[in-house]
Specification:
Length: 317
């Protein structure tokens, strides 16, 4: 999604990927919602839910054999997407270790850590705590739909809003930062109503009034923000290079740090840290990440003309 697209359509391709990716979440929410519709009380999902998940995973694994090799992928304009030259394990290990001294990657590291840090808080301590079984499934369906919309929206801004790519980067950070402030601020107001030691009564999607509507809209807003934030970071990664080899390492670094952050977050939750503290950590990680991304735009992101010229020189060499 970062090396296949033309130089000026990386946000669009990332959004396309995110839409397909989010369909997995939509399906993953529909299965427990449908199969547990008549089990509104608290409890675990039934066996059919796990069988459904396993079925989709098996089909997905088989479909992976149909993926076209990268060197056979041709763009609409007739250009080849990438030329893969396989290196040794030692070379890859060395190059990956170097990324931890790469100032561009270090500027992205905090945003990468924040990228999946939210999972334990949003999935367990918001959706899991506030809603009953079937409603959690419905919420997850719409949470991932919100992610699709968020990725498409910010992807359009990052590709088409201004002629200068630097300007689009600045605007993208501004939009996501403002939305993040609003969403986490609303989350704080909601979190002050309950705690780990004072859990509320489970809400059902059939509940009337604002009891269900407010937390439901908040949960959807979390999904919208997460997709916009991650699409933004992926877009910056795509701006830093054009060759498949470099971008694969950059994306691997991002996902590795992101997963490490998620591992820490789940351990924090296991230690029964107060919900409010978890929210503050999540909010702080994102907020500190924005200024570092601004520095990245200033120092590393080139405008489309400069980037395209550099890519041509790289291919020629």
């Amino acid at each position: 999604m970062t090396s296949y697209p033309p130089h000026d359509q990386k946000g669009t391709y990332i959004s396309l990927f995110w839409g397909i990716f989010s369909m997995g979440g939509v399906t993953g929410g529909l299965i427990p919602f449908i199969l547990n519709y008549n089990r509104s009380e608290a409890g675990s999902v039934n066996d059919a839910t796990y069988i459904g998940f396993m079925g989709f995973m098996i089909v997905g694994a088989l479909l992976s054999f149909a993926i076209l090799p990268p060197n056979k992928v041709i763009r609409d304009d007739g250009t080849s997407c990438t030329k893969v030259e396989y290196s040794s394990v030692w070379t890859e290990a060395t190059e990956i270790l170097k990324l931890f001294l790469n100032w561009k990657m270090l500027l992205i590291a905090l945003a990468a850590c924040a990228g999946n840090f939210f999972c334990s808080y949003q999935f367990t301590n918001v959706n899991g705590v506030l809603f009953n079984l079937r409603t959690r499934g419905l919420n997850n369906v719409l949470y991932w739909v919100a992610q699709m919309l968020g990725s498409i929206g910010i992807g359009y801004v990052l590709d088409f809003s201004f002629s200068s790519r630097k300007t689009r980067g600045y605007v993208g950070i501004g939009i996501v930062a403002l939305l993040g402030t609003a969403v986490w601020g609303a989350g704080l107001a909601n979190q002050l109503k309950y705690s780990r030691h004072d859990l509320p009564e489970k809400l059902d999607f059939k509940d009337s009034g604002s009891d269900y509507a407010g937390p439901f809209v908040l949960y959807l807003s979390y999904g919208l923000l997460v997709a916009m934030f991650q699409t933004l970071v992926y877009w910056f990664i795509g701006c830093l290079a054009d060759d498949f080899e470099t971008l694969s390492r950059y994306a691997g670094f991002y996902k590795g740090v992101q997963s490490a952050g998620a591992a820490v977050a789940w351990q924090i939750d296991t230690r029964k840290v107060p919900f409010l503290s978890e929210l503050i950590i999540n909010w702080s990680l994102m907020m500190v990440g924005y200024p570092l991304l601004l520095v990245l735009v200033k120092l590393a992101v080139k405008d489309d003309e400069d980037g395209a010229e550099g890519a041509q020189k790289e291919v020629a060499s």
